[in-house]
Amino acid sequence: MEWLRKNYEWDVTCQGSVAPAMRCFYESEDWESFMRNIFSFYCDSDTLGAIGGGVAEEFYHGFGDRIKVDKVLEIVLEKELYDLLME
User: Fold this and answer.
1) How many helices (H) and strands (E) does the chain have?
2) For the chain, what is the domain count?
3) What is the mean pLDDT of residues 5-10?
4) What share of the chain is helix, strand, coil (3-state, %, to 5)?
5) Domain range holding 42?
6) CA dist 71 to 42, 43, 44, 52, 84, Å?
7) Does residue 62 come out as left (phi exceeding 0), alpha (psi in the -120 to 50 range) or beta?
C-alpha cells in the first residue's frame, strides 16, 4: 500500500482503477479497513469504492454495525434522501 500511496495518479479508467481498488481490498482486514485504505491516498475514491466495495462487502459478509452505519447515513444524507432510503 505504501508504494501505491506514493505512486498512484488519479485515473478513472478501468486499467487505472481496478488494480488499486483490489489492492485496497487485499490489504484490508474488514470492510471498514478497506474503506480506510481507499481514503488513505489521493484517488477517485467513489470509483475505487464501487469497484472494490462490493467484493469487500461480500467477502466480509456485510459492512459492519448496522446501527453505526445508519447514524452515519443520517448525518451525511439530506433528510428526504435518508427518509427514502429507510422506507
Assistant:
1) 6, 0
2) 1
3) 82
4) 70, 0, 30
5) 2-86
6) 26, 26, 25, 23, 15
7) left
Q: Which three cell numbers stand for residue 9?
A: 495518479
Phi-psi sector, 58: left (phi>0), alpha (psi -120 to 50), beta: alpha
Rounded CA separation 57/80 (Å): 26
Instruction: Give the cell for residue 80.
Output: 428526504
- The pTM for the full model equals 0.69
Task: Give the model's pLDDT for residue 64.
Answer: 66
- State the first-to-last Cα distance of the chain, in angstroms, to the nearest integer: 39
DSSP 27: T
Cell representation of residue 69: 452505519
16 vs 7: CA distance, rounded Å: 12
The three cell numbers of residue 79 are 433528510
Q: Say if residues 44 and 28 touch (Cβ distance below 8 Å).
A: no
Q: What is the pLDDT of residues 42-73, one digit of tens each?
A: 888 888 888 998 899 889 987 666 666 677 77
